[in-house]
Amino acid sequence: MAWIKRNLLFVVGLAVAGLFLLAAGFYFYQSWDGAQTAYGDLQTKTSALDAIVAADPFPNPENLKQVKEEQQRVEDFKKAARERFGVQAKPEGLDNAAFKGLLESRLAGLVREAEKTGVKLPDKYDFTFGEQRKVLQIPDKALVPLVLHLDDITGLCRILYSARVHSLVSIKRTTVGTNDSNSSTDFLLAKKVTTNAVTGAAIYPYEISFQGFSSELSAVLAGLKDAPASYNIKTLNVERGVAADSSASSVPMTGVGLPGGVSPSMAARYGVGPYARMQQPAVAATPTRPNEPVLEPKLLRVTIGLDIVKLTTPAASTGTNAASAAPVKTTGQ
Length: 333
What we know:
Layout: H1 2-6, H2 8-53, H3 61-83, E1 86-90, H4 96-117, H5 130-134, H6 140-162, E2 167-173, E3 194-195, E4 202-212, H7 214-226, E5 230-240, H8 264-270, E6 300-315
Parallel strand pairs: 1-6
Antiparallel strand pairs: 2-4, 3-4, 4-6, 5-6
């Protein structure tokens, strides 16, 4: 004890030095553990670099140039693919009054065209826009999508009219907002409008159902194929159609009162005007030679599920006149 008292400063310095040595040892231990972790990361990155260096092709300037050329080819392909799609101008500044006027004018025109071409429509058919005709106010955000749907349906109807189908059974589209009833049979409830991630093209699903003969089915398919817009047929279902009433009528076979100057024979065949019930019972065809096949035309009910692939351009106009913005080419407006 006497020695410690005489050398107190030395003992205190020795104790402090010991504490510093313990702290240094603890710090070294922690640093060693971190160094080992860093060394492991270095080894992992070194292995990844070795794999890149040993890869075929090696990322040398020549190969990087080829990569850039491939990227340019992809961009050129996307540009060419976009040019094949129908382009539809998106109206701007559309209000309820302008939309209501456009809707009523377009639907009335579709009904007149159906009468002119002798195509039967369902009774008081609204072309999937029954809810919009009933309500007084439509949300502003739903107006533009509804106009796009209206243009698409106009184009599909005109293809059916050009093919002179016997009758239009139904058209189905995707819903827009809350104005479209989920219980209605006018909508494809399981489908939605989507956008292609590569080209940015919008994909609009539709389903059309009509009655006609095989020649008219062929004409509809040809119309879809030759249309400027991109129609992608997904499903095609053909079944026996509903036969027209073949009971006789006492109405004389004259052309008076027929829409569009349709001939009496065509009116009787498709059930137009006063000749809706003048179709005569079908006479079974008989072969003229033994074992000769007999082809008897039958009314068919055709249901086609399709997608309309198109690009949407920026707003073409402003104000209430936006309702008459140029639609997709198929509508032929």
